[in-house]
Amino acid sequence: MNRKQEVAKATEDLDFKNKKYQLQLKTNHGDIHINLSPDVAPNHCRNIIGLARIGYYDGLIFHRIIEGFMIQGGCPQGTGTGNPGYSVDAEFNETPHVAGVLSAARSQSPNSAGSQFFICLDAHSHLDGKYTAYGMTTEDTMDVVKKIGAVETARGDRPLEDVTIETMTVVEI
Q1: Pick from 148, 173, 144: which is nearest to 162 by CA?
Q2: What strands, in cross-sheet order, belong to the sheet with 117-120?
Q3: Which of 50, 98, 52, 60 is nearest to 80 (CA)?
Q4: What is each CA distance from 129 to 6, 31, 40, 146, in whole angstroms?
Q5: Helix (H) or strand (E) holding 52
Q6: Per-residue confidence in pLDDT tens, the chain, 173 aa
């Protein structure tokens, strides 16, 4: 199902010039707050805000967790194969992939990002300029990201017990 029109409608009021936005993820392991960076990746910021506003992420899981690397979520099937029915072109920028960075997950094609995202657990410079970084976890919630990054996983880097995004909301900061 293509959610592009819903996302466009849900983001008509965004004002990246005069306002700052933060994602607030309530997970079953605690809260994560991420300040968005529309100055370097406006289309990715607009996309995740729109998806969050329509409730797309509510109830989804972090389906892939690699200790010391990243936590990945945003797949509606929970398998890493799902998307919102459209993609967002890459917006490569100078933001380094350090611990806490929010970045767009994608397939081999640079322009294949949709709803999936990952949060880095450590610095990974090999991703710089190859994946679209578009936000940063707040320092006070980084402990939750690290806690999720340390859960026990099975084959395919899937957590043994679901790590759920109960809600993802957007606030102006």
Answers
A1: 148
A2: 62-66, 70-73, 117-120, 101-104, 133-137, 30-36, 21-27, 165-172
A3: 60
A4: 30, 29, 12, 24
A5: helix 42-53
A6: 899 999 999 999 999 999 999 999 999 999 999 999 999 999 999 999 999 999 999 999 999 999 999 999 999 999 999 999 999 999 999 999 999 999 999 999 999 999 999 999 999 999 999 999 999 999 999 999 999 999 999 999 999 999 999 999 999 99
